[in-house]
Amino acid sequence: MIGNDRRLDRRAAIRILLDKRGDLLVVTGLGSTSYDAASVGDADTNFYLWGAMGAAAPVGLGLALAQRERRILVVTGDGEMLMGLGALATIGVQRPPNLALAVFDNGRYGETGMQASHTEAAVDLAAVARACGIKEIFEISDELGLREFADRIHHATATVFARILIRADEPPRVLPPRDGVYLKTRFRRALGVEQG
Amino acid sequence: MSERAAVAAPDWRDEIFAALKAGGIAQVGYVPDAGHARLIDLVRADAEIRAVPLTSEEEGVALAAGAWLGGMRAALLMQSSGVGNCVNMLSLAKNCRFPLVMLVTMRGEWGEFNPWQVPMGMKTQAALELMDVLVHRVERGEDAAPTVAAALDIAFNGDLVVAVLLAQRLIGAKRWTK
Q1: Are B66 and A63 inside 8 Å of each other by CB?
Q2: What is the pLDDT along chain A (196 residues), one digit of tens a residue?
Q3: CA of A180: which chain B residue's CA is closest?
Q4: Do residues A161 and A137 touch, judged by C-beta distance below 8 A?
Q5: With an 8 Å Cβ cutoff, are A60 and B68 in contact?
Q6: How far apart are CA A138 and CA A118, in angstroms?
Q7: Which of B27, B55, B66 is closest, CB to CB, to A59?
Q8: CA–CA dist A176, A183 (Å, integer)
Q9: DSSP 3-state of A124
Q10: Distance (Å, rounded) from C-alpha A138 to C-alpha A163?
Q11: I want to staple A106 with a disulfide (CB 3.0 to 4.6 A). Which of A21, A168, B59, B170 is the partner?
Q12: Which of B128, B178, B139, B108 is nearest to B12 (CA)?
């Protein structure tokens, strides 16, 4: 295990993941991963969750099953993923080829005072994802691994999961829009599925 | 209803399935319940509907939101105990005005044999209404499909969360004919 201070910088990591995003659809979890995605640039095809912890992965699943021709990336934190671990089992059954899950794992609940999460002490989310039936698993601790995963998001033939080790720090917040109806409607308009 | 009429009547579960099809439902998230068993079988056998078994009902609220983001209609099947698992997740639907239809088979009511089902069964409708979910309750088989059709209509045309509660008396009366 590498020391926490040598882990990846979260903002550098998200830039690599979204660098050549093309028409990638992005779902982010509460809360730091939403700031991370916004730091690269707000987009109509970003859907940020500002609550409903545990929802990021299953929202991504529903979206992936609805939009088979598009690629979907869920970016969330270890705490948010832990609250919806059952969703990994549900995704393991469905395994849509156009779904990629990236967990930014700093072993902390960043929103609430950097308390240790279960991943710090015991839980290996990559092993959980593998045990749930997700076949292609990435454990990423360097930029090379990140770039390899960033490419797989666009070319994988089965659901992929990445545990990305990031540093426990709090870069300045970049706040995306918070209005849920606005976020939903612009996303649907961007996909051409919103009438009126 | 006489016994003869009950035998001759079309199965309300089949009619709910037809209503889901007519309403354009293409994803169905579910946590199994005996009262939904036939509907789940029909959903799983349908080539145009993606059946998504869930580990917990709240996943289904998020699944349906994702489906709608992608332009697809989803419905959720669960037992009344599962409603309690959905409460916080319903804030996602409420904040974003995601349309959602939940078909809930009731436990803890008439004919219940397991007292552990009673506390959540007693509070299912109240819990939903606390989260501003529109609740329709069905007591008779012939009302099931029209109620589901109405729920789909107001949910997807009005961006609302609607729950259809299928009374235990309705389900129990059928289960005992096995």
Answers
A1: yes
A2: 445 677 999 999 999 999 999 999 999 999 899 999 999 999 999 999 999 999 999 999 999 999 999 999 999 999 999 999 999 999 999 999 999 999 999 999 998 999 999 999 999 999 999 999 999 999 999 999 999 999 999 999 999 999 999 999 999 999 999 999 999 999 999 999 997 6
A3: B96
A4: yes
A5: no
A6: 19
A7: B66
A8: 10
A9: coil
A10: 6
A11: A168
A12: B139
Measured CA to CA in angstroms, residue B161 lies from A51, B136, B151, B166 at distances of 18, 11, 9, 16
Helix (H, G, I), strand (E, B) or coil at B66: helix
Amino acid at site A111? E
In the chain, the amino acid numbered B118 is V
- Is this complex scored with an ipTM above 0.85? yes
How many other CB atoms are there within 10 angstroms of residue A38's CB atom?
19
Per CB-CB distance under 8 Å, the chain B contacts of A183 are: 96
Best of A59, A67, A132, A189 to substitute, by most chain B Cβ atoms within 10 angstroms, is A59
